[in-house]
């Protein structure tokens, strides 16, 4: 049952990301994916939720600044 919830969250976060195209929720899909893997390995729900938040925050902190630089266009020069 927990695996279905994680799969549902991954799908939800990916759909929100597709709809917004603003790098808003893809980080949470990554956290949900890792939590799904933990669920399938038999790790408890408390650990799954904790890992979801930690992985999501780490992804936001370390990859969002890089991704924003990658996707912002340079300003035109006169």
Structural account:
This protein has 78 residues and is mostly helical. 78% of the residues lie in helices and 0% in strands. It is built from three helices and no strands. It has helices at 2-20, 26-40, 45-71. Helix 1 runs antiparallel to helix 2 (26-40) and helix 2 runs antiparallel to helix 3. The protein is elongated, with a radius of gyration of 15 Å.
Ordered list of secondary-structure elements with their pairings:
Blueprint: H1 2-20, H2 26-40, H3 45-71
Helix pairs in contact: 1-2, 2-3
- Strand coverage percent: under 5%
Low-confidence parts, pLDDT < 50 over ≥5 residues? none
Content-based structural category? mainly alpha
| Tally of DSSP β-strands | 0
- State Rg: 15 Å
Order of helices and strands: HHH
Give the averaged pLDDT, no decimals.
Answer: 88
Major sheet, described briefly? none
State the distance separating the first and last CA atoms. Answer: 59 Å
The tally of helices reads 3
Shape: elongated
Helix amount: over 70%
């Amino acid at each position: 049952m927990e695996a279905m919830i994680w799969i549902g969250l991954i799908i939800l976060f990916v759909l929100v990301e597709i709809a917004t195209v603003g790098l808003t929720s893809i980080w949470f899909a990554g956290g949900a994916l890792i939590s799904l893997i933990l669920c399938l390995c038999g790790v408890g729900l408390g650990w799954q939720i904790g890992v979801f938040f930690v992985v999501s925050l780490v992804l936001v902190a370390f990859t969002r600044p890089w991704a924003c630089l990658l996707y912002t266009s340079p300003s035109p020069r006169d």
